[in-house]
Amino acid sequence: MNVEISFPGLSSTDGVYLTWRPIPATIRLLEPSASPNPVSVRISSKPNNVGARLAFATTLTHRGTDTLDLVLAADGTPVELWVGGKFNPPDAQSPSPASQADGDIAIEVHELLAGTIDRRLGGRPAMIRVRKNAETLTDGERDRFLSAMAVLNGRGTGKFVDFRDMHNAAAYPQIHTNMSFLPWHRAYLLDLERELQADFPDVALPYWHFDHPAPRLFQPSFMGVSVSGRVRFSDTNPLRNWAGPGTTAGVLRGNGVGPQTVIGARTELQCLALSSGPNANFQPFAVPLEGNPHGPAHTRHNGTSATSWIGDPTTSQMDPLFYLLHNNVDRLWAKWQWLQSLAGARLDDPAAPASYSTAANLHFGHNRNDTMWPWDGLSRTGTVFPDGSQGPPIGPGGGLAASKMTTAPGPKPTVASMIDYFGRHGGQPLAFAYDDVPFVV
Amino acid sequence: MDADDFGAKYLAALAAQPSVPSDTGEGADEPDVLMATAQDASRPVAERLSALQQLNARAFNMIEFAPYAARFDQMLKSLCTDKSAKVRLAAFQRLGLSPDAETRRLLHDSLAGTGEKLVPDLVAATLLGFDDHASSRDLLAQLAGNSDGKLRRAALRGLSGDPSMAGRLRAIATDRTELSKVRQTAALALKSASASDFADMAQQLVADPTEDSALRALTMSALAHGGEVRAAAAASGFSARLDDVAANTMSRSLKRSIKLFKQMAK
Amino acid sequence: MDRAISALARLEAATGATFDARRWLEEDSPEYAGLAADEADWLRGHVYAWLARHPAQAVPLARLREDLQTSSSPQVLAGIARCLRHMAVGADWLTDLHTSAGRMALTDRYPAFRFDPPATCCAPALTCREELEKTIDALTGLPGGDLASAEARDQPSLVHVEIADIAAHFEDQDASLTTMMALLSPGPALIVPFYTRCMNPLKCSLAITRLGQAARLLPDISLYGLSYDPAWDTPYRLRSYGADRDFDFGPRARLLRGTQGWEDVAAALGLRVGYGAATVNSHARELFLMTPDGRCWTLPSHWLAQPETIRNFSLDLTLG
Lengths: 441, 266, 320
Prior knowledge:
Chain A is α+β, with helices and mostly antiparallel strands. Helices cover 20% and strands 15% of the residues of chain A.
């Protein structure tokens, strides 16, 4: 007698990549026992070497338990359960309480006989795959991420160049200094992360926690060290292959930020306090956030005598560090959404006015229910912004990449579809999370 | 600590957070003032460079900076021939992010020696080399032949956008009398200039245990990570030969890249 | 850049009633050979500005409009703005002028034409956007219809070439080899020249995207993208480029590069493309329709956004 654990959209051999937000699964007896009696089972998880484990429940909740007892019908009728990573905030003792490798956590199923665990009936390896502080990655995680980035960049005239061309001068007025700055960049990062995961499903995009020093990040083994305006990578770093514009190898970055630099912008708490309490609102949070700390995180690299792609918005995306920078900006939004929601605001509910701008008739692509350029395949050259600048033509890259772990947001994401990334308000989750932002129902 | 406790702790920290001053920009100089400072040759160089740094930061918000963009560009060009080498360098490094014809002409003439030496040759070669249309191909090809060290490597990198340079790049990459770093640079440039040539060369290099180990590791990494070169190598049955290579090397980097290649080439 | 400056000097020295500067605007003019892309733009912009000072010279309006619609070069756009102020054009240019000014809104630059006198406080230099806005002011209120009616006047023209004589070979995104006549054997073919390194989002990227979109409305017409840059645009690059623009590859939808005789193809079709040291330095937006009987038409490039117009034209050819 054994059991099968299934997840929607996944085959029996597909990897299972979980976040803090539980997803539904089913369990059933695979080879029904000869007896017509139901079978009691205990679901638990085998933790990894840093103690990260899964949480189980029969409904969508953030209070799942380490074990769950279920009764399985003898005829193999599936029983539903909810499975997610058990949230533990990172701290000095345990800076990375999630998975560190694919399948390092497993769902375990044991038969229960008179309330006591008996034989093992089955299991399924899984991974708690969340976006982590780059400083906390193990060497293995770091190297897998770097390889994934180098492979994406190594497609040459193709996907990476598309990501470059989605963020150039022509695109600037569409995606910056307007309401959709945060949701657009969330979609952009999600698209890139899913492209990485197509070849490296165990990789999640790390973030650069830019109001702290980053001694591991700014090393030749990771994002490199600026030497006379050019980034030096170690001989074994896959980013040695990195070609920013798609041809010439190398990254131009100034020496303004090093391993011990604190960039001197708004701190995390200051960002979270930009608009707080039960009346917290998107606009007074998002607008100043773009100016600071996002702006200084880009420009601080310039230094006084060095060229920096990352210091110019039309070239920044050619530096791999750009994606870690923006991931932290997005994390700040996610954290603010969570924290102020605890205080009573509804900041991750796409239907709630406070979760996004309520201004009427924004330019196409910036209203709550608009699809976003370039994924919608529509031109914005008819858009003229107040300063006279023009929107971009049809952009490259096709639709937003799919994920096996969710059907959301679809190839043509809307602004609203980026707001409730945990799927707390009836929708599907976007299948990403941050190590220090929990899911709370 | 669970999610609920974590949230309570954060809310308490937030409540204790002093009120956030808004970014009014008070105290920050207007771009016109900064540009005047940057251009004022009577000011200390450090002040002028600081003004340029502030202008670069202000220029990041393209919409707010739009009224100043043309004058900023014009000012930077005027600083390209400034008396101070540091000011010239800062100007070129800003303009060099997206150089136009005039900027490239000054860099070209400085590097070729046909005009005033405005910036170090390495800076000029690096900025001219980041061009996927290989516009400065002729000068960089010349430098690749008659210079050495970092300058030569910068020139070689700049040839990566020209398929007609493939033969030359391959010759350097396979020349055992060349320094390893030079060979590695030429190999990476060849990867862009001609994927088929690179794939062919790389397979031979990787399989040869007498070859330079750093070069073998780099070319194997490039094969593993580069979509087109990997496809070309896989099509010629390279995977089957890699088991021997992995078994006979002590290089962890080489082994790791071989493993990745086999995974990606499936 | 020295070559561009020398070319400009030759232009400025040109005199005589028979001198025709129109050739100086063509992408494949020998004046542009070997220049970098930005040098070619610099020179072309100066040619337009020079034409503005020589109103007796004929100006090819179709070429001028094409550059106005697609260029982001401050010299080209400012030069065109000056030209238009000295020509008897109407309000149908306003849409394109506004759009161009919008394109330069965040990246405005001084064109710094070499033959302009030094700026003074009474006659300050104008930026590219200011030149465009000055022209907008000059044309506002004038008669002249709108862009749509102006474009409606553009018509296909027959290219005098015997396609059967083009002994060129091509390779597609799957490395399959073919010939020109083989490409035409299933029926009429729409051909869009392009290259994957084109940095102008209004040209090649948009053209291949639109070519792919046209497939649904043109089921009886083959769709081929033809690379200007065959040495660089390998099958792998062609496939990546098309895939990222939702180009649905198939036997009648292919991206191609020349493997033999490419120069003959370019010459036969009169492709409007110029080359620098390593690759393309300038090209127009081009669109061709070829028929199995060996005829070839140049179509107005804006028809690619109106595939039903192409369908109707192709049907007329079949029936006529």
